[in-house]
Amino acid sequence: MMTYWNKIKKWLNKEDEIFLQDFAEARLDMGKESAKFHLHLHDFKVGELSFNDGKWSFKYSEEFKSRSNQLNLIIGFPDVHKTYVSQELWPFFKIRIPGLKQPLIREILHKENIEDTNQVKLLKRFGKKSISNPYELDTA
Question: Can you tell me the distance from the alpha carbon of 22 to that of 14, in angstroms, rounded to the nearest whole number?
């Protein structure tokens, strides 16, 4: 006979499996996309963020590299000569996506048919400006 706690554990494990499966499917859908963004500070090109083959990459522009001793580096990207690669979107860019539970944001997602798990589309839609920093992110 299954105890009450065992039933709860079994149910939670099923929920975890469903969540992980949904998450994996969302990553596969997003992985088929490719996108390129330019990061600017006023008229100055700071760098390029791109998404290809399921991975994000960021690199500083040549213009930024030539003046990096006069400018502040972006937190999380300390080496101007390195191309950073990650399967996860970095916090510096992720903060540009608003809270997806907000009613107005939910309405926009529904109206524009944007999946709330697709960070590429979310960044394209909401990522241009952020109240947390002066940089602008434009689709290339």
Answer: 12
Burial class (CB in 10 A: 0-12, 13-18, 19+), 56: buried
In a structure prediction context, what are the per-residue pLDDT tens digits for the chain, which is 140 residues long? 555 455 545 544 544 454 444 444 444 445 578 999 999 998 899 999 999 999 999 999 999 999 888 888 999 999 999 999 999 999 999 999 999 999 999 999 999 999 999 999 999 999 999 988 999 999 98
Contacts for 69 with CB less than 8 Å, ≥ 6 apart: none
Contact (CB, 8 A) for 65 and 95 = no
